[in-house]
Amino acid sequence: MTASIGLLIGHFEPLHLGHLRDINTAAGLCGTLHIIITPSTKANARFTPTLQDKARWVQVACQDFDFIKVHTTESLDVTLTGDYGKCVELSESAFAKLGIGQHESVKVFVKDGSMAHSQASTQTSNQTVKLPSHSYDDEEIYDNPIAHFYDIAPSARPSYVQTVCIVGGESSGKTTLVHKLAAHYGASVALEMGRLYAHSDLGGTETALQYSDYTPIAINHARAIYDAKKNATAPIVMVDTDFATTQAFCEEYEGRSNPVVAALADELRMDFTIYLDNNVEWVADGIRRLGSQSQRTRFASRILQILARHDITPHIIDDADYHTRYEQAVRFIDTHVLHKA
């Protein structure tokens, strides 16, 4: 008799296109497929997702298939056994939570590598089905997700994309460098929100800017970063200006810090920050106000102090030539973010 119920068990870290092929195959061989997500079998130095992270990746990827049910070892009565905890023992209570009755036939889908095996309860009749092989290497993708970014499932990519933020004072070349780097890497961009806010809410200049405006500016920037990561087109997302810089403007113009901006600086941290020294020519654009050398020096010092306040250590680029700055930023990203040889 053909089993109407299937079990697919693994750590799905990161969820990649090979996993989705396994899910498609398993789902096609049973009426209802239960996916059980386990903890990873080894530590990852760069990023350790929670079970909830991984459940979200799988659920988002499979949300159009009501015949696929996603569970975690925390939501079931599950025991991890065997080498590195790769085997899963399901108790009768776990089968009850899955809605699997006594003596029902269950297909247990297995695969070498990240997919765990199931040691099911004796109350069921189990058939082991080996999934076909594919070209996606679970271990290689796990060990170096950035190098295999395009193999990662779209629902999991935002968790692995690296944010590279360019900061600096007014007229330090931040925005131009952000767009040049975005073009170089084919990356998405989170734009500076202060300038956009001046046009959308203040009439095109900062004349009407006041303390209460820094909260929506920071919130809009947080949303822009979230959207850029969610729709990432490359392993990195370029971010124009950070919350520490927004705080520096608030303190410079308003004489006090903004707690919302400070909280976002701590909670929504960039993976890498590049600081551009203010040693290039100041260019008036109708919005910038800190044009004198003393103002620029004071503001640069303020940014660095606020970065240190939030335990952010930037990579400093202080060459006065714009193209050299671009080349130095590319070298930094290639070496420290993408880990290219």
Polypeptide structure, described:
- There is one protein chain.
- Mean pLDDT is 87; it is low at 113-123.
- 39% of the residues lie in helices and 19% in strands.
- α9 packs antiparallel against α10 (259-267).
- It has helices at residues 17-28, 51-61, 92-98, 138-143, 157-160, 174-185, 193-201, 214-230, 243-254, 259-267, 293-309, 322-337; strands spanning 5-10, 32-37, 68-72, 78-81, 87-90, 105-110, 115-119, 125-130, 162-168, 188-190, 236-240, 272-276, 315-317.
- It has two domains: 5-148, Rossmann fold (3-Layer(aba) Sandwich), CATH 3.40.50; 161-337, P-loop containing nucleotide triphosphate hydrolases (Rossmann fold).
- It contains twelve helices and 13 strands.
- The strands form two sheets. Strands 1, 2, 3, 4, 5, 6, 7 and 8 form an eight-stranded mixed sheet that branches.
- It starts with a strand and ends with a helix.
- With 341 residues, it is α/β, with parallel strands linked by helices.
Keywords:
341 residues, alpha/beta, Rossmann fold, eight-stranded mixed sheet, five-stranded parallel sheet, 39% helix
CATH architecture of the largest domain: 3-Layer(aba) Sandwich
Strand content: 15-25%
End-to-end separation: 55 Å
The CATH superfamily of the largest domain turns out to be: P-loop containing nucleotide triphosphate hydrolases
Major sheet summary line:
8 strands, mixed
Could you state the order of secondary-structure elements as H and E? Answer: EHEHEEEHEEEHHEHEHHEHHEHEH
Got a strand count?
13
Main CATH class of the largest domain: Alpha Beta
Mean pLDDT: 87
User: What structural class do you assign from the helix and strand content?
Assistant: alpha/beta
* CATH topology annotation of the largest domain: Rossmann fold
Query: How many helical stretches?
Result: 12
* Low-pLDDT residue intervals, each spanning 5 or more residues: 113-123
Radius of gyration: 25 Å
Write down the overall geometry.
elongated
Number of domains: 2
Q: Which percent range fits the helix content? A: 25-40%
